[in-house]
Amino acid sequence: MGVGGTQQVISQLVKNLDSSRFECSIACLDGEVGMIGEALQQDGVAFHVFDRTAGFDRALISKLRALLKQQQIDIIHCHQYTPYVYGALAALFTGVRIVFTEHGRFYPDSYSWKRRLVNPVLGGFTHSIVAISAATADALGHYEWFSRKSIKVIYNGTSVPTADEAGDYFRADVGIDSEDLVFGTIARFDEIKNLPMMIEGFSKVHQKNPHTKLLMVGDGDERKSLEELVQKFAISDSVIFTGYQSDTAKYMAIIDLYLLTSFSEGTSMTLLEAMANGTCSIVTAVGGNVELIEDQKNGVVVASGDTAALAEWMSKLTNAPQQRRQFGEQAKRTYEQKFSVTTMANQYATTYEKVMA
Hints:
This protein is α/β, with parallel strands linked by helices. The chain has helices at about 5-15, 35-40, 60-70, 80-90, 115-125, 135-145, 170-175, 195-210, 225-230, 250, 270-275, 290, 305-320, 320-340, 340-355; strands at about 25-30, 45-50, 75-80, 95-100, 130, 150-155, 180-185, 210-215, 240-245, 255-260, 280-285, 300.
């Protein structure tokens, strides 16, 4: 339960389920509660922490099975594939219902002969399989050999943090002038996010529009190489690396155009935040992005890796404030109709009740 989109979803789910109907605790398999987990602990959520060993840890299955029996668990909800394997095997023949949610896919996606043998068997014992987008559901059927008909889509939801209006004082704090147009992203700095595409696209736009800034909120293994790329394009004065920030609302509030250039996505939590804030977004046509953003209706969609198209739309929207506003307003309506945390929690509550029926 460290920093990440999946962890945010779990946190939102635990906090927004009806506590008169559901009592939740969390099992972490890799020896740490994590930053998001610590916040939940302070709110009174119980945690069970295990130290998974390298390779396939058979002893962990026994420990999880003991926990299920001791705590009289009704449902084990496994988030991501590895926890699913351990959780499902631990729950077999105990009467505990198994729910599995896949939050995203690898890039590039691939087959595995082991999963070809194991997944149809595990799937037969699993009471509900959930994907966070239709694209993720298709991948589970195509690459993981689960029955596509048995997979339900529940989109991620988030409760958007409120923040005071970010005025000129905060923009100046992070090196942004009042007349600057701000492109931005909030992301884990990982290869799958394809942040070099974003930086290169911004470099093209900045040459023509010097009153632009790129705000990059986050951290990760790729940070050093990204900083080197910024230096290569000679745009260091216009790209702002904030590092990891726990309070992202004030940064989102000063972003004029949100960018998401990933190679692969499930349902991006930060994209949902941008939509909820009424911020216009440009995203790549991968995974759940195209289920959130309808091209030129509530944002813009470009092909993955098409830096020229990205730069072209960034330039167009730089000079089209009314269109940015229209896209942002429609994105906010889309969020409110389909992607609120209440909608997500209610759909999972219905899932839990069905598997217990």
